[in-house]
Amino acid sequence: MPSTIVWLRDDLRLDDNPALADAAALGHTMTVVYVLDEESAGVRPLGGAAKWWLHHSLASLARDLEAVGSRLVLRRGSAAGIIRELAAETGATHLRLNRRYGGPERTIDAGVKGWAADHGLDAASFQASLMFEPWTVRTGAGGPYKVFTPFWRACLESGEPRMPSDAPDRLPAPARDTRGALPGSDDLETLGLLPRTPDWSAGLAAAWTPGESGAHARLQDFVDGPVEDYGTGRDRPGLEGTSRLSPHLRFGEISPFRVWQAIRERFPRQAPADVGIFRSELGWREFCWQLLYENPALATRNYRPDFDRFEWQTPSDAELEAWQQGRTGYPLVDAGMRQLWQTGWMHNRVRMAAASFLVKNLLADWRLGEAWFWDTLVDADAASNPANWQWVAGSGADASPYFRIFNPVTQSKKFDAAGRYLREFIPELADLSDKEIHEPWKAPELDAGYPEPVVGLPESRERALETYQRLKDS
User: Looking at the domain assignment, is residue 445 inside a domain?
Assistant: First the structure.
């Protein structure tokens, strides 16, 4: 009897899931599987915060599948081998999956599809996580874009993204093996995704609701409120001015097509300019994925080869730990790093300031920061995380110019003037005045528990500029 395997990866949803929808339309028995693959060559293991999210996302997906008559099979190991084993167990005749764009992942998927073709399985892949796939957006010369603005203009000129499809009301019955038994599934707890000793996830649980329903609730809250003032609200960390959709998009609990359509329905005629700014942020995500598609080593290799000669300095253990723990003595940086540890997320404006402080004021290699964010962000994305770190460092595509060094004091004064954000995450500064909280070392009543600055801003800025100038002159 015909039977279909649907192999889910970063597309943990029922709504607007082309691989799942196509498999359902076939009408065969169906096995929906997720493989935790930390063994295949080149696959980057998830960081701790992302693993926490994945655990709860899989639990939510399993409940959603059961509600429509299906079930989720969990396996751990080399994905290619697991899919072959599952196909043998279920007598699969069809395989459906949504496309991935990282180098190692493309290699794995191509190998599985090749194996399927050799063994008589009908295998098909679909566009699900990007509105504009990398090979479809090209310059007039036929190459990839290296600057965001013309890239995004080309995307928009190519036409509106497709309409999303609704989640199925029912799915075909799960496949069974030759003995009539359901395929075995690992228990979610045995995947070891949750922190145990110690369990540091309480702040994450308080801040987030992983899963498809949580994603749709987050989207609805955004389009009903902050989206109209996104252009200014996104810069103010003390306000709820951003979408906070990034972890939901990262795990595919909601598709970018659904987000785009929700905005289109909210503003059926002329959308405010701020809405266009939000759309361009979706575009930046697409741009980062094109960069990774063209440069699979984006997390480890400078996009601009000239930066291979840059004179990064090795920060002392004390300096690096001060940055990681939010103890640099600069409130905006420290508030951001504490927000990251507590919630697994950091406001975008503060991410830029915190990253700039590490790579420019401390002259630390951007890869140190990228690795820390990879481990601590719930939205750690294989494309956006390294692309954004390289943007700040100046080594990336369309990068911030080398002389742009974020001053954390002027940034907090400008975007968090009343210190609302600072007080939320640095309670030891809560009693300082709105003026003193941005430069607490000047306050006579400074709590002794808050550190002095680990480095001076003027001299560290000058050191960074001199180092960048040597690179430029070499």
Answer: yes
> What range does the domain containing 66 cover?
1-128
* Annotation says 389 is catalytic: yes
Among this protein's residues, is 385 annotated catalytic?
no
- In whole angstroms, what separates CA 291 from the centre of its chain? 15
Q: Which pLDDT tens digit goes with each residue over 21-69?
A: 999 999 999 999 999 999 999 999 999 999 999 999 999 999 999 999 9
- Which of 38, 39, 133, 312 is labelled catalytic? 312
Please indicate whether residue 17 is annotated as part of the active site.
Answer: no
Question: Which residues pair with residue 122 across a beta bridge?
Answer: 94
Concerning whether 208 is annotated as a catalytic residue, the answer is: no
pTM of the predicted model as reported, rounded to 2 decimal places: 0.97
Longest dimension (CA), the chain: 79
Q: Give the Cα separation of 262 and 244 in Å (integer).
A: 15
Residues 321, 235, single domain; the answer is no
- Is the Cβ–Cβ distance between 98 and 123 less than 8 Å? no
- Edge to edge, the sheet with strand 72-76 lists 72-76, 29-36, 3-8, 94-98, 122-126
Indicate if 26 and 88 belong to the same structural domain: yes
Residues 452 and 353 in one domain: yes
Of 293, 297, 15, 285, nearest to 130 (Cα)? 285
Read off the CATH number of the domain in which 329 is found.
1.10.579.10
